[in-house]
Amino acid sequence: MSEPIIALRSVTKEYNGQCVLNVAEMDVLPGEVFGLVGPSGVGKSTLLRLINFLEPPTAGTIRFMGSTFSAQDSVPLALRRRVTTVFQRPMLLNRTVAANVGFGLWLRGEKQSQTVINEALNQVGLARLAARQARTLSGGELQRVALARAMVLRPDVLLLDEPTANLDPYNVGLIEDIAHSINRLYGTTLVMVTHNIFQARRLAHRVGFMLNSDLVEVAEATSFFESPRDPRTAAFVRGEMVY
């Protein structure tokens, strides 16, 4: 097995003295699609925030691309830029689609290459809308713009937080195809939070189940869905209430 690109050890996160995340051990392998499933409010999005270094853990360590960080450590900007998140409700600027896709490059002081922007828009099927104002887009189109904006940054790790929530089946399929292409074409490691266990089964190489702030089980996707070890995982996969 290759060295994990992300490794969490004894990681906890507390807000106002209340523990909202408890991960004894979790590895994400380079180039894989790692799915995180579980009920709402169990810590999945908090885990993504820690992996993206938006906030530190209360305790424990996060190892990323060979460097280890705890609550007291400052993560270098160059390393934080190797992780990008696409949120469930992406925030776009009141500008054109092309300007939104190139915004991250501009923030980083990089030369905005129209070729790179056009390539990303082509990959998400929105090249024809490059000059359209972002505020006029549908929900599915907004999410594809957010994916294109992430793609031009060429992150080593792309975090997807419920990327298809509230989308119709057609747009769900488009987003899933794009996510699969990003992983396959660029070797980008994907960590995807989703309530849709069928989506996790379609896309993920390995899946983790979270419940009551704890990471209960991680397994290869086939084993996770067909022969889970933990009875709580088995109940969740069967669609039973495990809240």
Describe this structure in words.
By secondary structure, the protein is α/β, with parallel strands linked by helices. It is built from ten helices and ten strands. The strands form two sheets. A six-stranded mixed beta sheet has the order 6-7-8-3-9-10, with helices on both faces. Strands 2-1-4-5 form a four-stranded antiparallel beta sheet, covered by helices on one side. The model has no long low-confidence stretch (mean pLDDT 91).
Number of helical segments?
10
Order of helices and strands: EEEHEEHEHHHHEHEHEEHH
What's the total count of β strands? Answer: 10
Low-confidence stretches: none
Topology:
Layout: E1 6-15, E2 18-28, E3 33-37, H1 44-51, E4 59-64, E5 67-69, H2 77-80, E6 83-86, H3 97-101, H4 103-107, H5 114-123, H6 139-151, E7 157-161, H7 169-186, E8 189-193, H8 197-203, E9 206-211, E10 214-220, H9 221-226, H10 231-237
Parallel strand pairs: 3-8, 3-9, 6-7, 7-8
Antiparallel strand pairs: 1-2, 1-4, 4-5, 9-10
Helix pairs in contact: 5-6, 6-7
Keywords:
243 residues, alpha/beta, six-stranded mixed sheet, 34% helix
Compact overview of the structure:
With about 240 residues, the protein is an alpha/beta fold. The chain has helices at about 45-50, 75-80, 95-100, 105, 115-125, 140-150, 170-185, 195-205, 220-225, 230-235; strands at about 5-15, 20-30, 35, 60-65, 65-70, 85, 155-160, 190-195, 205-210, 215-220. The protein is about 35% helix and about 25% strand.
